[in-house]
Amino acid sequence: MLRSGNPLPDKVRAVMLRSETDIHLVASALGDCLVSAPGEAPGLLIPAALADGKEGRARLKGVLRHRAAVVGHAVPPHEATASVRAASRLLDLASAYDGPDAGVVFVDDHLSSLLLLQDESLTHTLIARRLSPLAGLTPERCERLEATLLAWLSGMGAPEVAKALSIHPQTVRYRMRQLEKLFGARLRDPRTRFEIEMALRSRQLIAGARRRRAAVNRRRPRAVPRPRTPLPRP
Fold it and tell me: How many Å separate Cα 96 from the centre of its chain?
């Protein structure tokens, strides 16, 4: 629903915010929109057309500047909760706090990431199954091989992978020989290659989300314990 007295648009988008500070001023700047109720996750429901095209996106970014915000995908009004859910999920993976470095992120630009992390239990199962050949390696070696394998699975040849990773092409070939020994015939099966790429990208997304959560925790002020009042002696 939008403000009373106005007809519902054909499509709406959720806009989920990290903080509810001045949320009503944001709503006023955007025009027709519905503001979340007190106690709910801070957010807005806007006509989808407000985020259409470069001009729409630029206007939203201007209104929401210095805020960590996610604009959901366009849905019919009766499916608004789906846009809220997707935007809220992406907000967990995007900017961790408001401020000059915060920005507006659009669900439309991150559909594959959201699909990969839609069910974290299945995602962890996929990672464990398809990346098991890397399980016994040191973290440093595992990271190097994963980066090389992901670039190769993206369709790059040795020169392109070398340029993307800033390493020598011969290093790429050496790593690929190691990967072929570890994965064997699995790298020659199209379906398995696809699932390995999904697992690699999922692991990257999960690691990034963990780093952002850790950054938030470091920024939070530590609670200072109150001095205890001594009990009166009997």
Answer: 10
pLDDT tens digits for 105-121?
A: 999 999 998 998 888 89
Burial of 212 (0-12, 13-18, 19+ CB in 10 A): middle
Residues of the chain with CATH 1.10.10: 120-215
CATH of 120-215, one of 1.10.8, 1.10.3470, 1.25.40, 1.10.10: 1.10.10
Q: What is the pTM of this model?
A: 0.72
Which runs of E-coded beta strand occur in the chain?
Answer: 12-17, 34-35, 43-47, 69-71, 104-106
Beta strand 12-17 with 43-47: parallel, antiparallel or unpaired? antiparallel
CA distance 99 to 180: 45
How far is 216 from 87, CA to CA, in rounded Å? Answer: 19
User: What are the φ and ψ backbone dihedral angles of 144, each rounded to 5 degrees?
Assistant: -65, -45
